[in-house]
Amino acid sequence: MKISIVQNAPQKGDWKSNLADLDRIIGNGCGADIYILPEMFATGQYIDPSEVVQTMDGPIVKWLRDKASQLNAAICGTLPVIESANVYNRLCFAMPDGTITCYDKHHLFTYSGEAEHYTAGSGRVVVNFRGIRILLLICYDLRFPTFSRNRDDYDAVIYPANWPDKRILAWDTLLRARAIENQCYAIGVNRGGSDELGVYPGHSAIISPYGETLIQTDEHPQMVSAQLDMEQLARFRAKFPVLQDAD
């Protein structure tokens, strides 16, 4: 399976411009099966998202649906969504048939005040797309290995993020740890650029189950791709059955 990381530097609050910029970065696509965007890819990061909160019938979700159809691929990223008076940091995984699988961020970043404005999701979400099982998580979830634990129910894990430069060593280290300990591909998609909350250095990456870096970005907007080798993953798990011995 071919995975493309689509890293942008969103301008805060200007979702129309941000989506147009992503259209330019993606173009006609590159034949990938899945295109993965950062956390808050269209709005920029908001601790209080009341200015930009969306519904599932809104323009950002429509863009995801349309893009999935145009590319004949899945495309995913997070946005602030209101539902039944609750606001969620929601990862929407849009598929080319028009269906969307959603995951609401479970670990809210209390340090920044995120927990004061968003409702935490409670469910674990694994989506099966074109034969690969993918665990959907978001940013701060990366710091919690128990919640990320592979129950022999996924092959890859996705972490869209807004991760600042001052903690980027933790990002690099934890992505590699999640891949190794869970015998999976770990895919982290960070943003670039800056806002009043910090500077974002990219470092989006795809890490193999062996802990190897298949691709990694610098800080600039870009689209890069790598192949996930499911046959190799199956052989590795059969030869070295770590998951069978897990607590």
Offer a concise description of the structure.
The protein has 247 residues and is of the alpha/beta class.
Task: Give a verbal description of the structure.
It is a single chain. With 247 residues, the chain is of the alpha/beta class. A six-stranded mixed sheet has the order 5-4-3-2-1-14. A six-stranded mixed sheet has the order 6-7-8-9-12-13, with helices on one face. Strand 4 and strand 5 form a beta hairpin. The longest helix has 15 residues. The radius of gyration is 17 Å and the shape is globular.
Secondary-structure map:
Layout: E1 2-7, H1 15-26, E2 34-36, H2 59-71, E3 74-83, E4 86-94, E5 100-104, E6 126-129, E7 132-136, E8 156-160, H3 168-182, E9 185-189, E10 194-195, E11 198-199, E12 205-207, E13 213-216, E14 222-227, H4 230-239
Parallel strand pairs: 1-2, 2-3, 7-8, 8-9
Antiparallel strand pairs: 1-14, 3-4, 4-5, 6-7, 9-12, 10-11, 12-13
Our Rg estimate from Cα atoms comes to 17 Å
Query: Care to count the β-strands?
Result: 14
| Largest sheet strand order | 5-4-3-2-1-14
User: What is the oligomer described by this structure?
Assistant: single chain
Task: Tell the overall outline.
Answer: globular
Residue stretches low in confidence (pLDDT < 50, at least 5 long) are none
Helix content: 10-25%
Biggest beta sheet attributes = 6 strands, mixed
Strand content: 25-35%
* CA distance, first residue to last residue: 30 Å
Secondary-structure-based class equals alpha/beta
Given the structure, what is the number of helices?
4
User: Mean of residue pLDDT?
Assistant: 97
The SSE string, one letter per element, is EHEHEEEEEEHEEEEEEH
